[in-house]
Design brief:
Layout lengths: L1 E5 L8 H14 L4 E5 L5 H5 L11 H6 L9 E2 L6 E4 L8 H8 L2 H9 L8 E5 L6 H8 L3 E7 L2 H19 L6 E8 L3 E2 L2 E2 L1 H14 L12 H9 L13 H14 L7
Parallel strand pairs: 1-5, 1-6, 2-4, 2-5, 6-7
Antiparallel strand pairs: 3-4, 8-9
The protein binds adenosine-5'-triphosphate and magnesium ion.
InterPro entries: AAA_dom (IPR025669), DNA_Partitioning_ATPase (IPR050678), P-loop_NTPase (IPR027417)
Protein name: ParA family protein
């Protein structure tokens, strides 16, 4: 199983949007995919159509190992290949457990070993803060995808995320590498890119190198429509908007030989 964490240390950088569309596209390509919602705001859980009762197992129980691993894994309505370990607002209570465990950064990685033979790819939607949950999510990752708004704020989020990643790598808490930086809400007026968008995407390129910056996610209401209808952008009739995720899947498939079938 290849584990990819979607992380960016600011709110509203496109983490959940990226996790959601990437997971659906992988599942549509017949890839057994496990998604994990690690954000107590639980937007990914909601976007995937779940309304959990208070007693239903989530990532909290998966991390604490208070139920068998498979009890926290739910099939989704999207298709037979897409599964979710959900979150609810109780997930915040795991922060102390992680910090007291002494091995917080490696805990999720260890827990995922129990399901590594069942799924081919695991996509984790990270929380926006530099919390214990965020550390264990980076610790579990083989690769990081960093969405960052095409703005001054987004560039700052990218820098903070890279700093955290490098700090964790220095102390051996993760081996994760950056798979790609994904500019989010790139604004265009006809054929002209907004000045702030262009300047910030240029800064991202000079920070991580041209080859790591993926084609950007355009500012568009279509994404919200697809989220609300619980479908992909191409299922909504906007395949062109899906291009950044297709490139990401190509990158992923070079690491695990997916035999992609988008039909
Ligand atoms: N292409 C787009 N253009 C404009 N808005 C978008 C686009 N894609 C998603 N959005 C909206 O942008 C907002 C932020 O996106 P998202 O929730 O994915 O960010 P996030 O990084 O997960 O945020 P948080 O840090 O709060 O978890 C959401 O309201 C989402 O519906
Ligand atoms: Mg989110």
């Amino acid at each position: 199983m290849l584990t990819i964490s979607i992380a960016s240390l600011s709110g509203g950088q496109g983490k959940t949007t990226t996790a959601l569309f990437l997971g659906r596209l992988l599942a549509r390509s017949c890839c057994p995919t496990l998604m994990i919602d690690s954000d107590p705001q639980h937007n990914l859980t909601t976007y995937l159509g779940f309304e959990l009762e208070a007693n239903q197992p989530t990532l909290l129980e998966f991390l604490k190992k208070t139920v068998p691993a498979e009890d926290s894994i739910y099939p989704t309505a999207y298709n037979d290949n897409l599964f979710l370990i959900p979150a609810d607002d109780q997930l915040d209570t795991v922060q102390d457990y992680l910090s007291n465990s002494g091995v917080g950064a490696t805990l999720l990685k260890r827990r995922l070993e129990a399901v590594a033979k069942i799924f081919k790819v695991c996509i984790i939607d990270a929380p926006p803060q530099r919390s214990q949950i965020c550390l264990t999510v980076l610790g579990a990752a083989d690769f990081l995808v960093i969405p960052a708004e095409a703005s001054v704020k987004g560039y700052g989020s990218l820098i903070r995320t890279l700093d955290l990643l490098n700090g964790l790598r220095d102390v051996g808490a993760t081996d994760a590498e950056v798979l790609g930086v994904l500019p989010f809400r790139d604004r265009w007026f006809g054929n002209t890119q907004a000045q702030e968008s262009r300047a910030s995407v240029d800064s991202m390129r000079s920070e991580v190198g041209e080859q790591l910056v993926l084609p950007s996610i355009r500012e568009s209401e279509r994404f919200k429509q697809a989220i609300n209808k619980r479908i992909t952008l191409s299922e909504l009739g906007y395949q062109d908007l899906e291009y950044p995720f297709e490139i990401l899947i190509e990158k992923i498939s070079t690491h695990i030989g997916l035999g992609i079938n988008n039909g």
